[in-house]
UniProtKB/TrEMBL annotation:
Keywords: Glycosidase, Hydrolase. Residues 5-308 form the Inosine/uridine-preferring nucleoside hydrolase domain. The lineage of its organism: Bacteria, Bacillati, Actinomycetota, Actinomycetes, Pseudonocardiales. Pfam families: IU_nuc_hydro. GO terms for molecular function: purine nucleosidase activity. The keyword Hydrolase applies. This is Nucleoside hydrolase. GO terms for cellular component: cytosol. GO terms for biological process: purine nucleoside catabolic process. It comes from Amycolatopsis suaedae. The keyword Metal-binding does not apply. Coiled coil: none annotated.
């Protein structure tokens, strides 16, 4: 088997495409989905994950519910935030009912069980707020050696979406994000919205996916509200599939080009709360009289073959 993968998610339309990419890839052993609050409350994200797995025919994949709020402060989600529709998956009426009950353990416990049971390190793809991952690493420090790497969708180098400085997933729980991105030593790839926006797909791409079969049609049916939102952002018909870009890297290491940079997360209460501060300065040589080199901590995705990435996601989901 290929990549062993756990996805931590808050579905979410782009999460749906990301989960489909993993669930439909023959070289991925999808060990489980863990859910977190985010695009909608935890109860909805969990049911969305269950129903998506039913659409993909993956009764074998367990789902465990995780954090329902951030680590420290209340979740400040704006009341008018409905990018993904009221239930997180606009148009989800056509999704099948769950094929499997939620696991009787919480998300962190299930991740520990899956990691300990694996005979090789497992990739974790967190594509929602990082609360579950921060709890996992804080409560179970010895589990780090069982994690191959984290491939995180989140953050922004040059400006955010939920605020002028911050991207939604990091802004939702900056304290958790700082724990994961700054204080831990697990190999990490951060896939920021600067790159995911460039990977936007257009109407013909979505139409082609919809024509590929029941899974593609089912996914396309979820995009009405999401596409309406991105019509105002992109100025054309299409959408940004943020989370699927990160899962593509989790499945196919190197499909994204990265730069290693030190990162911090603003946990203050000003307008930059939740911002990912990426230090892109070139360190000077120690004997050059300048500042000493700063060890890089996170591999930040900066580029990809855009058409190749879109084809990879399309063909995997379509079963080509």
């Amino acid at each position: 088997m290929g990549t062993k993968l756990i996805i931590d998610t808050d579905p979410g339309v782009d999460d749906a495409f990301a989960i489909a990419l993993a669930a439909r890839s023959a070289d991925v052993e999808l060990l489980g989905l863990t859910t977190v609050y985010g695009n909608v409350p935890l109860e909805a994200t969990t049911r969305n994950a269950q129903r998506l797995l039913a659409l993909f025919g993956r009764k074998d994949v367990p789902v465990a519910a995780g954090a329902e709020r951030p680590l420290v402060y209340p979740f400040p989600k704006p009341r008018d935030y409905a990018v993904h529709g009221e239930d997180g998956l606009g148009g989800s009426e056509g999704l099948p009912d769950p094929l499997r009950d939620i696991e009787p353990v919480d998300a962190v416990t299930m991740m520990v069980q899956l990691l300990e049971a694996s005979d090789e390190p497992v990739t974790i793809a967190p594509i929602g707020p990082l609360t579950n991952i921060a709890l996992l690493l804080a409560a179970h420090p010895g589990i780090r050696e069982k994690i191959a790497r984290l491939v995180i969708m989140g953050g922004a180098v040059a400006g955010g979406n939920i605020s002028s400085a911050a991207e939604f997933n990091i802004w939702a729980d900056p304290e958790a994000a700082r724990r994961v991105l700054v204080e831990e030593s697990v190999p990490t790839v951060l896939v920021p919205m600067d790159l995911t926006h460039r990977c936007a797909v257009d109407a013909p791409w979505l139409d082609s996916l919809a024509a590929s079969g029941p899974v593609g049609a089912g996914l396309n049916a979820l995009t009405t509200d999401y596409r309406a939102y991105y019509r105002t952002i992109l100025g054309s018909e299409g959408m940004v599939m943020h989370d699927a870009v990160a899962v593509a890297e989790a499945i196919s290491p190197g499909i994204l080009q990265t730069q290693s940079w030190p990162i911090d997360v603003d946990c203050g209460f000003g307008p930059a709360r939740g911002a990912t501060i990426v230090d892109r300065r070139t360190p000077e040589a120690p004997d050059g009289g300048g500042r000493p080199p700063i060890p890089p901590t996170v591999d930040v995705a900066v580029d990809t073959d855009l058409d190749g990435l879109r084809t990879f996601v399309h063909d995997r989901i379509a079963g080509v």
